[in-house]
Specification:
The structure holds two protein chains of two kinds.
Chain A: E1 2-6, H1 14-25, E2 28-33, E3 37-42, E4 48-54, H2 60-72, E5 76-80, E6 89-92, E7 102-105, E8 113-119, H3 131-166, H4 169-203, E9 217-222, E10 239-240, E11 248-249, E12 267-270, H5 271-277, E13 284-287, E14 293-297, E15 308-309
Parallel strand pairs in A: 9-15
Antiparallel strand pairs in A: 1-3, 2-3, 4-8, 5-8, 6-7, 9-12, 10-13, 11-12, 13-14
Helix pairs in contact in A: 1-5, 3-4
Chain B: H1 12-20, E1 25-26, H2 27-37, H3 46-58, E2 62-64, E3 76-79, H4 81-105
Antiparallel strand pairs in B: 1-3, 2-3
The chains are: A alpha+beta, B mainly alpha.
Amino acid sequence: MKKRVFRYFFDFTDGQEKWLNEMAAKGWRLVKCGQLTYDFERCEPGEYEYAVEFVADKSYAKSRDYKAFLESMGYKTFYKNVYVGIFFGIKWRPWGEGAGQIATAPGSLRKELIIVEKKNDGKSFELHTDLTDLLTLYRKIRMAYFWYAGGMFAFALLLLFYAVRTNSLYMALGAALFGALGFLWLIPGLKTSQKVRKLKEEAETNEIRSAIRKEKSIEIDRLIWHSHSSRIPCIRDMVCSRRAARPLLGPGNDRIRLGQPLERKVYRIERSQAAAFVPEGRHSSIYDRNHYKIGRIGPFHHGSGRNGVL
Amino acid sequence: MREHIAGGALTETTFLVLLSTYTPNHGYGIMQFIERETHGRVLLGAGTLYGAINTLVKKKWIAPFGDAEPGSNKKTYVITDLGKQMAEKELNRLRELYGLASRIIGGEPK
């Protein structure tokens, strides 16, 4: 089964990544992406994980070399655009490095991002783990967001100026439209800014980021199951009554390996995965492979990071 | 990747990549080596690793080794003499640090 989804992300790094992971948790694997489309095919829920990598600062040669490297690491990769257009183009990228400042199509234009797909092996999937590396990257991303937003605002101002001079309603509408587009890029820009600040703080004392994205996890403070089940429930054997989601994190933020027996302790579940487990505020039963009820999970309050029960 | 010139301290990533290339190794092998040898404590991101390899090649601490395996784009790297010097210096620094920490924090009767 296949499906095509039309979508464009102004929040092209984190927003897009989160959405792709949510799709994967629901059992949709990316097979192709166009400028405004994503083609998916069915897969096991939670079988794949995605990361979106920003490469618009690199020259085409460097970005291709990087893409080949990622492929050699066993990942599947897709180029993805931020810039939308169909004609031959050339564009200045103020945030670029060296030859990466000039983007052309065909070439690096409309290949601003690399979507990286990894088969879920229960381990965390981070492309960048060094704090200095992360800082450099997010500073570049922030600059790109602000340039996109700034460009739109400048254009909006120009249109507004003409709207006032010529008393044209269309010009005023145009100005409003571009102003709104500017805000759509400004918001993720500000979010990235916040992230940079946090990273800076962490980098004052540490070098390597802890392997798990803490801000994405929800704590589950108790583990309840029915003791009349003599079987030891395993993650591998777990089928959720709604949709299965794989990566559960154990005590001390260790990821539980597939097939590892669960214990009556604190477990964490990533927020993006929680949506696949249970709808907000409700709970869901968990069954083993033989459809034997072994426990329940939820309720989660997705926004607040409140606790749920497994 | 940042080198603290004054203290001579390498970043953990740099040091681990150097250690993983004492026998010629490719990107995926380096990642696996680091995960295995640190018992999963350090899971190096592919993007960070890519940056680290390029920096170390530029500094000539590691060098491309032989030709890429036929039919694959896996480039192999091996540590250079300069890289070995750096790694040895780091080992000495860590020994010193380890001694100091053991004395102060305890746990190592000496």
